[in-house]
Write a structure and sequence with these properties.
The complex is a heterodimer of chains A (about 190) and B (about 140). With about 190 residues, chain A is mostly helical. Chain A is built from 10 helices and no strands. Chain A folds into 2 domains: about 80 residues, RNA polymerase sigma factor, region 2, helix turn helix motif (Rna Polymerase Sigma Factor, Chain: A, Orthogonal Bundle); about 90 residues, Orthogonal Bundle (Arc Repressor Mutant, subunit A). Chain B is mainly α and about 140 residues long. The chains are: A mainly alpha (about 190), B mainly alpha (about 140).
Chain lengths: ~190, ~140
């Protein structure tokens, strides 16, 4: 695993005119940038193009980065905005969470049923449930549970207040539980 | 790992632990750096073009200055509109006649002959710019 210095070191070098100092920043953050973009942009080819665009924008705007937030947060915000902008151009549908759907979530405890599945089955179940979520909801819950970002940072990336992120997370969890319940009820779950 | 006060954390965090998120494709950073270097090369080209523009403008100004000095008989304190005699003919007459020609040309557009004289170098610069873009592939930032 490659060892990196603090982001601020590379930023300073780039601003001094060393273009190559930007490469470690790309390598350090490329996976999460790609993952954020991929939540919103549907095809891997488009996602790669948008992710490249994100780093180009970041490179050109680097002089404007004031260090008020972490570089990663600033970069992920660019990633989110660029991907959403791309989605709008491609007319990606951002489906709002249906309140009526949330109300119909059965009060059954499916936790035990899910935990009884194998790790591979659980992985597939989560992926399937994520796939039906609108892009931003998919991103919020992925940032929180998979990338372990805190509420404050997610808010900064998505452009929401912490309270909004908390409310969203609560709804997304309910929605995912409903979807997983639906998948489990529809058929005996098996890994393809 | 961040500590969160959320009753679902362990359950959902456990579930998410079983999936693998997409990673950037192989060679991604190389592609990004190539694009950045290519853009930097274009920026340098544009910067070079600034020097070219500076040179062109300086040349025009210098030519104008030489013409002015010539018109006042090589004296900075002479009368510009008196002109200088060359082979018994006043050069300034040619200048005045030219002004009249341009003024009459511009009459229909309600602009003065002087404006036409100001516009001429601009038109010349635009023409040079277009030629350079077409022939040399240079990007001039002014137009």
């Amino acid at each position: 695993m490659m060892k990196f210095r603090e982001d601020q070191y590379y930023i300073g070098e780039v601003l001094k005119g060393d273009v190559n100092a930007f490469e470690p920043l790309v390598k350090k953050h490329q996976d999460l940038v790609f993952s954020i973009v991929r939540r919103i942009v549907k095809t891997p080819e488009d996602a790669e193009e948008v992710a490249q665009d994100v780093f180009l924008k970041a490179y050109h705007k680097l002089g404007k980065f004031k260090g008020e937030s972490k570089f990663s947060t600033w970069l992920y915000r660019i990633a989110y905005n660029t991907a959403v902008s791309h989605g709008r151009k491609k007319k990606t549908e951002f489906i709002p969470a249906g309140e009526d759907q949330l109300e119909r979530i059965p009060d059954t405890d499916i936790d035990r049923e899910i935990m009884g599945l194998s790790a591979e089955e659980q992985g597939k179940l989560v992926r399937d449930a994520l796939s039906v979520l609108p892009a931003t909801e998919n991103l919020i819950i992925s940032l929180y549970y998979y990338h372990q970002k805190d509420i404050h940072e997610i808010g900064k990336i998505i452009g929401m207040t912490e309270t909004n992120v908390k409310v969203k997370l609560h709804r997304i969890r309910k929605k995912m539980l409903k979807e997983m319940n639906h998948i489990l009820g529809r058929e005996k779950y098996s890994v393809a | 790992m961040k500590k969160r006060n959320d009753p679902d954390t362990s359950f959902f965090a456990g579930l998410f632990g079983n999936i693998e998120m997409e990673k950037a494709p192989e060679g991604f950073s190389g592609k990004v750096m190539s694009a950045i270097r290519a853009e930097n090369a274009t920026v340098r080209k544009t910067a070079d073009a600034w020097w070219l523009w500076g040179g062109l403008i300086f040349s025009l100004l210098f030519t104008g200055l030489v013409a002015a000095v010539f018109m006042v008989d090589f004296s900075f304190f002479g009368d510009l509109f008196m002109g200088v005699e060359l082979d018994g003919q006043q050069i300034i007459r040619f200048f005045n006649n030219s002004t009249s020609i341009f003024a009459s040309m511009a009459d229909g557009f309600d602009i003065s002959g002087i404006s036409v004289f100001i516009m001429l170098p601009v038109i010349a610069l635009i023409t040079i710019d277009r030629l350079l873009r077409k022939k040399a592939g240079l990007e001039l930032p002014l137009i």
